[in-house]
Amino acid sequence: MSPFNQTTDNHQNFILTGIPGMPEKDFWMALPLCLLYSTTFLGNVIILVVIKVDRSLHEPMYYFLAMLAATDLSLSLSSMPTMISVHWFNWRSVTFDACITQMFFIHTFGGVESGVLVAMAFDRFVAIRFPLRYATILTHGIIGKIGATVLLRSVGAVLPVPFLIKRLPFCHSNILSHAYCLHQDAMRLACADTRVNSIYGLLAVIFIIVLDVLILLISYFLILQAVLGIASREERLKALNTCFSHVCAVLLFYVPLIGMTLIHRFGKHLSPIVHMLLANVYLLLPPVLNPVVYSVRTKQIRQRIVRVFCGGRIGP
Q1: Which of 57, 66, 109, 267 is the most buried (most CB within 10 A)?
Q2: CATH code for position 91
Q3: pLDDT of residue 6
Q4: How far apart are CA 297 and CA 144, in angstroms?
């Protein structure tokens, strides 16, 4: 029997997990989840709408911010259906194909977010190092190409994952560790050699996450060099202040991601609740807090949002 036939014959569904060991508490998890998803949707949509309708925000920095908001929204929506169904309705069963589809989108948009953060670091470097040529370097065409490259890179890296999972036989447990599907979580349930999946997953992480972290470190080293070359102390502080929101977004994304990866590799002895909490923080926290950080720290965004809610004219 082929691996494909074993997979579909033995396990047509996966069982998702809510709060490990405390299924009776799942309903109480649903209320904050709905609040988080509502906040995520509202915050990121507001950012997108304000940037779209206000012509004074049609600049490279805000185009990249719009990319980040769209990615956060997509990443959040990728996990929402199963998260809500598990915690609110106690619907834990998900079909094999639906699980693979969700897996693809979660990993793809995670990679896109990492790439967008790198693009935003490049934007800050150009703005600080070449302020007079900023608009001529980051033209609409260049920004579009950067966005397309980030998306295509992530799709290309994640595209083999569904096929690698599809070929595996699942003839033991079909209970996943989270309320959504991840490649590494499904892979551990296979009753066959998963070295190909593990090696490819490691290569994909190196190609996207590790490479992006290195580029971010180099970018901020160059940014600091450029800032130190500015004569005026006030101008140096002003230049660093424009990077603060981006640094917060980087930390919000990479710290939970690195923590989740380390715990998955080396923390198998830890409580399942720790795994569940960190995985949920990785998926839920950045999309919720990024709009808040940029709204509070970016004067132009904050002013435009206030004008929208006050019914005033949006303008410079």
Answers
A1: 109
A2: 1.20.1070.10
A3: 40
A4: 25
